[in-house]
Write a structure and sequence with these properties.
Two copies of one chain form a homodimer. By secondary structure, the first copy, chain A, is an alpha/beta fold. Helix content of chain A is 41%, strand content 18%. Chain A contains eight helices and seven strands, in the order H-E-H-E-H-E-H-E-E-H-H-E-H-E-H. A seven-stranded parallel β-sheet of chain A has the order 3-2-4-1-5-6-7, sandwiched between helices. In chain A, helix 7 links the parallel strand 6 and strand 7. The first copy, chain A, starts with a helix and ends in a 5-residue tail after the last helix. At the A-B interface, helix 1 and helix 5 of A face helix 1 and helix 5 of B.
Chain lengths: 224, 224
């Protein structure tokens, strides 16, 4: 059974990659810089997006696309924080977004005024890493209470992302977490990765993240 | 593309269900009671299994099968805590265990002296729920820092499990978590579910969980 299954997955992936390239072209044409945000359930994707939108919506037009198995709780939060557009994709059981879903969501947003599109993937540390969406950059959020062994146990996702946010650093005094061990695992898998330590709850470390995002948007070739 | 994909998934599932039934028959024949433990990455699957094995290994012969994308960190911990047998399944990228993998792992254990087999699924709140393994009971671990919206956002898994462990209750003072809201979501999806609140770190609440597991093993028709 296994070989058949693998070949089906490969066929889906190559169709996905073609569509991802089309999504990228559409975003580039509209001069929109885009992020794919991945994490375990509860690591703080929605909270980080909310904090980012709140802080930057006076300077940048931000759109958010939220992927979830069910509910529109996340898109509601993004809209409430000041996103110019917020679209919820309910995957109906699928454990990740794919390029088809993004291609269906993009026409629901008027991209012309948008500076940055933040795509919140389904909460899952495995599957989203296998499906390119066509976004310009990928961000993984890891959170302190998840434990320091995560890079070793989920190497695929830590390997493919461009940026790592370590969230919930306010919980460091209350949980066992060896930062050195965690970072050694991350850096072995992904030596070039950018790392931000922060707490969406207390706001500690958010400044550096926000300055970095803002700079990315201004530096991006698509900047108007 | 979608219809083709769905029919492939259905074919895999029905093959999986047949194999799950064979696994169950093999476990029943050997008089082994078995648990399928599911959770997000970092919710505390390995810690709960470790605490359970440590506390009960003087009374029960426990075997542990650990599913992970990579590494044998979890099986090493299970073996160190006193499990009679510990087998690691590296799924090589697959985001869940399935009945085929369990069927391959079972012959690696001498089941005859085993009272209880604990299967630790891959850390994922979505995919494992779709693949029966053939175990007698399923346990979901949710942890306080993941947030109180998880039943609403991952309804599939909360709906199908028999038992819910709410772990890391020692972090309740440090994170926003509305227990009422969380429990309302759980009970709407799964009114009959058994719920345990505990902290693997402090040991609070572990007694009730351990007594329940021990009772299950003794009450099970397979008890020798």
């Amino acid at each position: 059974m296994t070989p058949t299954r693998i070949s089906v997955v490969e066929k889906i992936l190559s169709a996905n990659d073609r569509l991802a390239a089309e999504n990228r072209a559409r975003l580039d044409e509209a001069k929109v810089f885009s992020l794919n945000v991945m994490a375990s359930p509860g690591a703080g994707k929605t909270s980080l997006i909310e904090a980012t939108v709140k802080a930057l919506s006076s300077k940048l037009n931000i759109a958010v696309i939220d992927g979830d198995i069910a509910t529109s709780l996340d898109a509601d939060r993004a809209a409430a924080s000041g996103a110019v557009a917020a679209v919820q994709i309910n995957t109906g059981g699928e454990c990740h977004l794919d390029a088809v879903m993004l291609a269906q969501a993009l026409p629901q947003i008027d991209l012309s005024p948008i500076d940055i599109l933040i795509v919140e993937n389904v909460g899952n540390l495995v599957c989203p890493a296998s499906f390119a969406l066509g976004t310009h950059m990928s961000v993984l959020i890891a959170s302190i209470p998840e434990g320091d062994d995560k890079p070793y146990k989920y190497p695929g996702t830590f390997h493919i992302v461009d940026t790592l946010v370590i969230n919930k650093i306010d919980l460091l005094p209350y949980v066992p977490f060896r930062m050195d061990y965690f970072r050694r695992g991350v850096e072995a898998l992904n030596p070039e990765i950018d790392i931000f330590l922060l707490s969406c709850k207390t706001g500690e470390g958010l400044e550096a993240w926000l300055a970095w995002i803002e700079q990315l948007v201004y530096d991006h070739p698509s900047e108007r």
